[in-house]
Amino acid sequence: MNEAEHRHRMETAGKALAAARAVAVLTGAGISAESGVPTFRGPDGLWRNFRPENLAHPDAFARDPALVWEWYRWRRRRMAPLSPNAGHLALARMEAAVPSLTVVTQNVDGFHARAGSRRLLELHGNIWRDRCCENPDHVFQREPADLEGEVEQASVPRCACGGLLRPDVVWFGEALDPATVQAAVGAVQRAEILLVVGTSSVVYPAAALPAIAHAAGSLVVEINPEETPLSAAADVVLRGPAGVLLPELEKVIGREFRP
Ligand code: BJW
Known about the structure:
Blueprint (H helix, E strand, L loop, with lengths): L2 H17 L2 E6 L2 H4 L18 H4 L2 H6 L1 H15 L6 H12 L2 E6 L5 H5 L4 E3 L2 E8 L6 E3 L8 H4 L11 E5 L8 H13 L2 E5 L11 H7 L3 E5 L12 E3 L3 H14 L4
Parallel strand pairs: 1-2, 1-7, 2-3, 7-8, 8-9
Antiparallel strand pairs: 4-5, 4-6
Bound molecules: ligand BJW.
């Protein structure tokens, strides 16, 4: 894509954003890549070294909870020193620039909340929470500072009630929280524009949200350096890293007149 075409696409997306009353943003691992969090399916992605069914699956936890915990503890340690990047921060600021902006994320890293996004739906949970397998309402927030603590050291941590603890994330074959999914569907149906940022668009039900938005009349804009299964169906495709393109879009919105 040449520079003029990129400019034209930026203006199209920016003008639509500036005029919209309701905006939704669906994010995936790519938005956190520039923070240093590995994606799942990229060249250096987590799935290059691990088979998902061996780790992000309830059967894997039933078979070998210590192995699954080792993997999540390793990821927590990797994430602990990292911070939200320019892409997360631009989205959080955009919340003030449009009447209603909802971020729907597949990410479990908590970076959108840390960046300041307040209307936020975490479809796949949060890696910094533990949940009891016996009593799912027994939920515990963990912090980077807890990484050296007793619970974190245990090969398989236990709840005070005696049940096994697990990371409060959604594994393959598990249902997402129905209320969160319903809220995400509502948000993309209400949105005049849906930004789809940094996702390979292969994991359902999240990957169905752009088609739902389209059917409801939303303009679908993809932001991704690579082609995905969504690219051909998107109304506007912006090729490049989210940490560069989202701040660029924010500038275009700032230039536009908002009635
Ligand atoms: C950049 C960038 C930069 C790089 N800037 N971009 C329909 C059809 C087929 C299958 C199914 C279906 N419905 C359900 C299924 C099964 C399954 C599924 O979708 N399988 C497919 C893989 C085929 N779905 C499920 O099992 C879901 N559950 C379910 O449907 O339950 C039904 C049910 C109902 C009732 C009772 C019981 C069950 C659950 C899915 C859970 C996904 N979980 C994971 C792990 C979370 C926990 C953890 O982190 O450990 O979620 S898997 C993993 O994939 C993670 C991610 O959130 C998710 C999506 O990945 P994402 O974000 O797209 O990352 P990548 O790496 O794939 O892509 C990164 C992108 O960024 C790339 O495009 C890069 O180019 C780009 N990028 N740098 C912008 N700087």
